Structure formats: C-alpha cells, structure tokens
Amino acid sequence: MEFETDHQWVVQINEKLKNHESSSMEIQKWKKHCIYETPPSVADLNKKAYNPLTVSFGPYHHMKKHLLAMEEHKHRALVHFLRRCNGKPLELLIQSMAEVEEDLRDCYKPLDDQWKSKNENNHSFLRMMILDGCFMLEVLRFAACYHAAGDYADNDPIFSCHGRLYVTPYIKRDMLMLENQIPMMVLDKLVEFEGNKNQDPEFLNKLILKFFCPDTPIFKSFGKCLHILDLYRKSLFQHEPTHPTIIPNQSKSNKHQEDEIIIPSARELLDAGITFKPSESHSFKDVSFNGGILRIPSIIVDDCTETMLLNLIAFERMHVGAGNEVSSFVFFMDNIIDNHVDVVILEQKGIVQNALGSDKAVAKLFNSLSRDLAVDRGGSLEIVQVSVCRYCKKPWNKWRANLIETYFRNPWAIVSFVAAIFLFGLTIVQTVYTILQLYHNT
C-alpha cells in the first residue's frame, strides 16, 4: 500500500515535469495573486484584527453566521444600482463581469474548490462579486453625499444619516481587512456598466480616498490599484521627506552599523538633545533627521489603528513586490515608544494624537504591532535611525541638552544662570585687578 502511494507520487511529479511551466508563466501566475488568507502564524497573534465584524466582501468570510444580516442589504443595493443603469438587465451585468471572471478568481490565494466551478448553471462566484461590489460602491457613493440619501428612504438602516453614524464606521473598518477585499476590477466593471464614458480615470480612487480620508487632499494619481487596501496603503506615501536626512559616514564596519540602528526611546532621545517636530505631511515616508531635529508624521491612534496597520503589514508580508514601508514605520515607532512616558512626549510635540484615552494603551499598541515583524534593511528610515544613533553618541550633544534642561528651562533659571556668569566674571576681573595692583606696588 505504501509502495502504491509512493508510485502515485512519482507519477504526479513526472507529470509536472512534462507539463513544466516556463519561468515567465510562473511569474504571471504569481503576479495575479493579490488577496490572501492570513496565515495562522500571523492571525493567531490577534484574530480579531483580521476577521470582519459587520460585512463580508469576497469568498473568505462569505455567509458566515455573524455576517448574514448584511446579505439582505447587499441585494437591496444591487436593485438600486440597476434602477440607475437606464434599464439595463442583470443578465447583461453578469455577462460583463464574466469577461474577467478568470482574472477575478486568480486574485485569491488560496481559493476553495466551490468557487472554481465553471459550470454554466453555477454563477455563485460571479453572483458574490456583483453583490459585494454593488454594496461596496453604494456605500462609497452614499458616504460622499453628505446631505442626500439619493433614491434610498430617509429611514434606511444603512443608506441614511442613521446608518452613516452607526453602521458605516464598522463597514469602513471591515473594508480595510486583507481577507475581506474584492479586486478593483469589480468596481471598474460596475462603473463601466453604468455607461458614464466621460468618467475621470481617477474617479474610483478619489471616491475611495474621500471615504477613508475625507480631510486629506490628494496630490498624485495612483493609477490602477489591486484593491481598496492597496490604494489606501499607497495614499499613505504621497510625500517624500521635506527635510532630507544627512547621510552619515558609511566607512564603519557592518557590525557597528547593525548595532547603531537600535534607536533609543523618545525619552532618551530627548535627553540626548534631539528635538521632535511633526512632519509637514502625514506620509509615512516623511520621516527625517537633520540638525538635531527628528521629524515624524502626525498619526491619529484610535480604535481602528491596530486593525488597519496589522492588515497593511500582512499585505506587505504576503504580496511580493508590495514594499515594506508600513512595516518599517511601525518598527521605527515601536523603537521610540517603550512606555507611556514616550507617548506623552510625542503627544506634546503633536506627533501622536491619542484617541484611545490611555497613554499606556498607545504604548502597548505599538509594542504589540511589531511582534514577529520582519523588516528589510535599507531605505530612508534606516538612514534616519543610523543618523540619530550617531548623533546620540556624541558627548557634546548630551552635555548641551543637560545644560539647556538645567539652566534654560524657565525665565528665572535663565536669569540665575546669567547672574552667576556675571558674578563669576566680576570675581575674575577683581582678582586680576588685585594681582596687577600688587605687582605694581612691588
């Protein structure tokens, strides 16, 4: 029996050798994947951060018991969407979405067999994509219309002022989960189906970012994005550092450089004479160090921050080529925040805006985010950390900081310090005068 099993394995491997895909085909195959299940090694650290609480999008959480209540509203959103499509039938929408059905399936890694069936009578995957896509598009559009309910009733449980206040924030949270994404192609197809040919190419991107960041201006075009989480991540890097970091001397050994990038906490940096200032933008890339001033983008820490950052980190971990900017920023913040004292310092400097209430909770949040976090060496943040560490090791910077802390903290201390210097100067003059007088007398 064991021999037969081994024989089957040999046959399978030989078949794969015969049907070996070229490297270019493998590249294209892996390139299509962009929505992933979070591996247990990551999800087990904080299961709540990766599981939607209100609504499911896509196959990974489809029809889960605690999310079933929202399915009724998805169907209603589809009806309202079709009413505004100039009488176009649902069958035509299904045909349009079927054009990219295979590409949509390829976005998910892994995908259960129940969603892979191509039976003409089985449109469950397309039905899910259409329902989820229409609901998502309707939520985005309604949120952009602050005073109008459109063709929805004023007492609609979702698309009303009541829903905007009590339901939309939870939908927004669920829409930023990696496992709860649908491909941007779905929304593109829905907008195309409506027939607005003069649509701005950035229409969807602007609509999505207005939903998530209503007060943040958009300064660049984002082009084609994989899904909402991908677009949101890219929006966090609109600006490069406005005060470039001076690159330190790289002549030291690699071992010494590795030791240097363990950046001290905010309290220790303050003691070393480093000044904190908020960056001119909110971009995670806008971290710089120059002339003893460490600039860090201002970040709001609220109930959704943990979920948002963990899913962005998970996307960077799972998607090859996504980059590691969010992971690097979180690792950097964990380094400078050891406890609540560091949080207080960053709050006073306008870098951390604490909506959690407890400074200890903010410190605990950043300390937990970096658990099992892999950060690629290199990049602008490593240059910042190396520069900061070298600055801290210069004794003069610490002496100057202690001098300022001791004698220039308040006006009375300054007056006392100046008076002491003045008296010391008078004493020296008097001593010199006395010596000269004695010299002339002799």
SSE arrangement:
Blueprint: H1 2-18, H2 23-32, E1 35-36, H3 40-43, H4 71-83, H5 90-98, H6 101-106, E2 108-109, H7 124-144, H8 161-166, H9 168-174, H10 184-194, H11 203-212, H12 228-235, H13 254-260, H14 266-271, E3 275-278, E4 288-290, E5 293-296, E6 299-301, H15 305-318, H16 325-336, H17 340-348, E7 352-354, H18 359-369, H19 380-392, H20 395-407, H21 411-441
Parallel strand pairs: 1-2, 3-5, 6-7
Antiparallel strand pairs: 4-5
Walk me through the structure.
This protein is mostly helical and 442 residues long. Helices cover 54% and strands 5% of the residues. The chain has 3 domains: 29-235, no CATH class; 254-397, no CATH class; 409-441. It has 21 helices and 7 strands. The chain has a 3-stranded mixed β-sheet. It has a two-stranded parallel sheet with strand order 1-2. Strand 4 and strand 5 form a beta hairpin. Helix 7 (124-144) crosses helix 11 (203-212) and helix 11 crosses helix 12 (228-235). It starts with a helix and ends with a helix.
Task: Tell me briefly what this model is.
This protein is mainly alpha-helical. The protein is built from 21 helices and 7 strands.
Question: Oligomeric form of this entry?
Answer: single chain
Beta strand %? under 5%
Helix share bin: 40-55%
Main β-sheet description:
3 strands, mixed
